[in-house]
Hints:
By secondary structure, the chain is an alpha/beta fold. The chain contains 14 helices and nine strands.
Amino acid sequence: MGDRSQQTAFQTTRQAVNQAVLSPKMPAINTAPTLENLPSPLPEKSGWPWTEQSQPLPKQMPNGSEWPCISIVTPSYNQGQFIEETIRSVLLQGYPNLEYIIIDGGSTDNSVEIIKKYEPWINYWVSEPDKGQTDAIQKGFNISTGAIWNWLNSDDLLEPNAIQTVALAYQNNPSATTFGSKLTYFGISTPRIHHKCFQNLSELVCVWEEWTTPQAAIFLSSKACREVKGLNTSLHYAMDYDLYLRLARIPNFKAQLTDALIAKARLHTDCKTVGQSLACKREMLRIFDEFSLNYPSLLPKGWRKSRTRFVYHLALDEARDNSSIKPPLKSFLQISVSFISSVWNYRFFWSCLLKMYLLSYFKKVEKLQALS
């Protein structure tokens, strides 16, 4: 589709949704909801965002200007156990110019029932079959009107005052392309804070070096995202990495960072990050390889060794996945031999060899000696 026809289609879609937002069924949100407005949580629920809320903001920013419209898109599919917490974390931001859009893929659990509970405070929502998470996010983005936007998965949360933090960052640097901050990973493991967020293309290309893409904590310029045509809906796992690569190539790319915790990413067995990590890494590698072929002059120093080590990790993960716990010593050595020129002086290689095999071997020897 050409640029002109794509723009026309986008405008038509936006007009249709704007009409839906302003219809009697989907009233415009004039004020930020509070705990008193929203449905009461179950008695066992407490804390943020069940019994706590962000401080409501004044109608104008500290400099006297209007708060920028910020759009949040939540893609959803059969996440009824989590989505209410997600919705409340968005609505209880106390932000006076919020646009909240939920695109549900036709859930068969109680997700739609929960969404309907909060319908008066949601600008637009739909539940219908789609082509997956990326397609749902793009559908939401296509109808959004905010100057800044992000997607928040239906199992993740915003921290209190998160949107205010983003708005103030926008006030300080309205020409920025991304507004990045910190997030907390929580769920199946001990909570940990993700501090690193990419500031330029070099920090982003070999993303596995420091995993500099804490998606839920990276808000985006809507104008810039439309300039690069939004998300690639053929991708299912690393669509954020692909989008950031295209944004970072914009000539006037700027990253505005803050030091606040603004989101929480939930890790659980059914989320892609945990349950489908191998597929995610394979797709990420494919995106990187396409980038390296098309933009060789933009690759950072040492990218070949970095890529080789990432492939090495991927090979070990695949072997571990096939053997449930860890690959046999023979398999580990066979995999390592093919990468030996890159990993012989790699601390990770020797650490794996020591922790995974040699220590267990000596423990077995000690146990046999104790029994003899």
